[in-house]
Here is the input.
Amino acid sequence: MSERLLAEVFVEFADTLVDDFDLMEFLHRLTVRCADVLGIAAAGLLLADQHGALRVVAASTERTRLLELLQLQTDQGPCAECFHTGQPVAVADLATAIGRWPGFVTEARQIGFASVHALPMRLRTDVIGALNLFNTQTGALDADTIRLGRALADVATIGLLQARAIRDRDTLAEQLQTALNTRIVLEQAKGVIAERRRLDMDQSFTLLRSTARGSNRRLSDLARAVVDGSETL
Here is the structure.
């Protein structure tokens, strides 16, 4: 692991600790950076909405996002288990967990994942979500990698708190709900772009993000413009 890369990532995240930053861009970037820094294949982030139900808010790849959705639909998988128990979940070889999470393991292995680790995201004593770390090789992550993964999960929690200077859990739930609603708009925008430009969903999201950055616009604002037809990219 490059110490320079690690330093750059934490500096990058520190830059988000200002007023009015783009929360959805921050959460997506977190999953991508998790994969980069931890040397894993992909990462996904699930957060609880105001009713306590898990929702997918970010993933480093489209196939990972769909796999996370499968966890929620079946209520089985490492992230769901991690959230409900509040404890980390580590599976060094997914083949051994087929009886534990049959649907999830089957789909994960079809994608090419061979191992998974889930880390709880905590706000004081409350678990507000979970960070999923996927790898294409079997084997447990070492203690240093797990420790760094927890640090990144903590950074995500800090970013959520900073997003609207949250003071209590009720306000946090409201802000998370806003993020979850924005996620829906982002998915709609990706679908519109994919159909118009004949791209896959990952390519559509890349185009959406690059356009937002290039025009110094919020990712969520641009997504809404694409959906309502006022922006065609």
